Amino acid sequence: MNAIRTTCPYCGVGCGVSATVTGARAVEIKGDSTHPANSGRLCSKGTHLGETVGLGGRLLAPIVHGQETGWDEALDAVAKGFSETIAQYGRDSVAFYVSGQLLTEDYYVANKLMKGFIGSSNIDTNSRLCMASAVAAHNRAFGEDVVPCTYEDLEQADLILLVGSNTAWCHPIVWQRIEAARAAHGTKLVVIDPRRTETAEGADLYLPIRPDGDVALFNGLAAAMRSRGLLNDTYLAAHVDVPDGYWDVVGTADVADECGIAPELLEQFYDLFAQHERCVTMFSQGANQSVNGTDKGNAIINVHLATGRIGQPGMGPFSITGQPNAMGGREVGGLASTLAVHMGFSDAERDCAQRFWNSPGIATGPGLKAVDMFRAVHDGRIKAIWIMATNPAVSMPDAGFVREALAKCPLVIVSDVMANTDTAAYAHIRLPALAWGEKDGIVTNSERMISRQRAFFPPPGQARADWDIIADTGRRMGFADAFAFDNAASVFREYCAQTAFENGGRRKLDLHAWAELSDADYDALKPLRWGGIAPFGDGQFSTANGRAKIIAIHSPKCETIDPDFPFRLNTVRYRDQWHTMTRTGLSPRLSQHRREPLVEVHPEDAAALDIRDGGLARVRTAQGDAIFRVQYSEGQRRGELCVPMHWTDQLNAGGRANRLSSQNVDPVSGQPGFKNSAAAIAPVTPAWTGFMVCRDQPVLANLPYWTLVRQRSGWLVEMAGFDEPDVDALMPHGERVEASDPARGTQRLAALDADGRLAAALFLTRSGRLPSRDWIVAQLDSEEPTSGAALLAGRPAQLPPDRGAIICVCFDVGMKTILGAIAEQQLTSVEAIGAALNAGTNCGSCRPAIKSLLNDQKEAVDA
Ligand code: SF4
Predict the structure, then answer these.
(1) Which of 151, 321, 570, 696 is the most exposed place for a label (fewest CB within 10 A)?
(2) 316 in ligand 1 pocket by Cβ < 6 Å?
């Protein structure tokens, strides 16, 4: 079969993917060398997409109140449920909670149904959680949500500032482009982050900023540029409105104190900014996921406007999005705070949208943003909610509260690809949606590049496209003509036409050139960027007077420490996982980089609390508590913790980060402050710890700590308990061998199948010493019988070398293997390690980690 050009479904980099079907549900994945975003490169997540396309765990038929049904029955139930709720309680008693995983066509139809035909704005998206503050900052400064930069600006810049972005892990192909630019042109890099991440390791300057110190830092930068005479007065006079008192605001801060950064580092930062006019400031979740995220965005934009560093090659403020189509959702109006296609709720805009849609009524004002939406579900104002392609029972802050809300909501509808998500457990109606590789549509990446996602598998079971499911519901609610779409192309055409309708140059988002696209041209659509390379290159902004706005912002006061919750908790993402792991958790390779959710803590903080590296600890906030494996990290600031946001009830007992985060949100954008919660941490001392390797997924009820890690031929389970373990409940039936040492408190069991191959092995200890997992896990792959004695020993007669934690998932290379090769072969570069071990030579996602190991080794030798 010919390769199909499509787009990666994970992050907002929006890499092109070349997919060649090789079997019924098998596909070979390569980077699309013709796609401008990635030129053929893919990170570890994109590279291993082929491991996530199986049908295991898929929802393949509608389910109404636990019974499998056909579509007619299911969508009649949805339409009737919504219509009756609206009739009885009003149009604001219903809501859609949608997702940056949806394609633009899905988003468009959902937004049209809710705002134009139901007549409410209660549609919000999980993008609220990742970049709503950047949207609000753009709207305040530019008059429209327009990202001024492209990835090419990164290559043309002389200085790149990364603010709250672990780019090497979260946007790896952008990171590779930055690394290539640095190698080619000596581009300077400054990383501003409370954590010293892999991204920070190789920076020219790292600023370990205290959480939420960004406004003070960028106000300080603006004041420093002014005192050095480096403002662009010509640009300011021609294109920017500066509010009275702005310079008083930025000049008053004690920047070093408010940011927690040494004055000499601040001077280095100011010098770099002063010396390099072509500067891009890229900001991401670390800036956005804050109770003052909008202000952070505007503080960054202010500096670029004041120095005229915007609209020209290699310069500008650059918000990079988390999700594959967060931008598409913003464009159509999928946020409760916009109406449609970058229009707000003025009378003129509402009239314009209503006439375009020819709708019976239209939403009168902004709807409920995500956190408020679930509050309204909780207190009964919302009585029917439709959740599409997202998992709020895990991903929302104070996720326990969201679960309570869903449990008492009279009607919960969930459209999803997977059958068993934590959110699906609360659904009265579940609707099977098409997955990546099965659906057609467009996505927009962080640089306004629109790309096609294309189907290369036929629809499985009864699964349907989201736009099709929503349109069918709209027709059943009585809006037949407005939702009579033939295909994704017809939705796309209507969306493009709406961006152009009575636009008159007021909005940069104008896709009129594609409003008449034929179906064939839509099928063949190549990546295109709206707004051009520099949408503000002419100095014209989308405000009423055409001028950009500087916003005067005071930096927030330092928080007082609560003695009950003396730490600041940050939630973060891992290199090889995506969101709530419903897809990346299917990949055995991607599961190896981080096998468990870790709480990272500074060693001195840990030692003071008797918390052991590799042990377990309970993190507690006012919202709840969760147990994590401990990792000491010198990269953490003292008094701060971080935990990953990915794990769910499906793969872990209780290590869910977002049950800990509070409902506090940015007052402008409504984005939650995930990155800075008051927390406490204490050691957990279980009576026993252990692990199990097994072919079939085990049932692990009633254990206080367990984590399931997918392997190529089965599962690895890490576990711990306080009570006597119920071994019979854990192990499969069949022939067993067993050994125990009561004196040491160890117990080892192995179950073999009829061919003598490993079915399951369980290792428990009360002393804390357990064998290495790798050899035992590898026995699941073996076609040969395994020796019971070797299994109980946890190793063969000839012990294979311990690889350590997996660094390179493409070639399965561990940390100890790399460190050994560095020492023995005197390797001094990432390239030399690649030549020796292959590590880092495929997707390149592990290259920052390898570089970090090289640096550590060099520092150890120098010391
Ligand atoms: Fe996908 Fe990785 Fe590219 Fe993001 S950087 S779009 S996850 S391949």
Answers:
(1) 696
(2) no
